[in-house]
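INTERNAL TRANSFER SHEET
From: sequence group
To: structure group
Subject: DUF4287 domain-containing protein

Please process the attached sequence and return the structure record in the designated field. Keep the field labels unchanged so the import script can parse them.
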Amino acid sequence: MTATAKGPAGYFPSIEKKYGRPIAEWQELIRSSPLTWHMELVAWLKTEHGLGHGHANALVAHTLAEAGDR
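Return from structure group:
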């Protein structure tokens, strides 16, 4: 039986399906952004890339957690 991703990663399959980009690409955009605060990055993904709040929040939370919360 396949384990289901929990937390922010649980959104990843629907993010890839809805927006047509792999998660690694979204994470690279977040990492390369000059923005540093969580909600700044969420707002940027929403306004510049058209993501919904939940999807943007999940991507930012997961990416920042991997990086040690910059």
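Handover comment: The chain has one domain: 11-67. The chain is about 65% helix and 0% strand.
Transfer complete.
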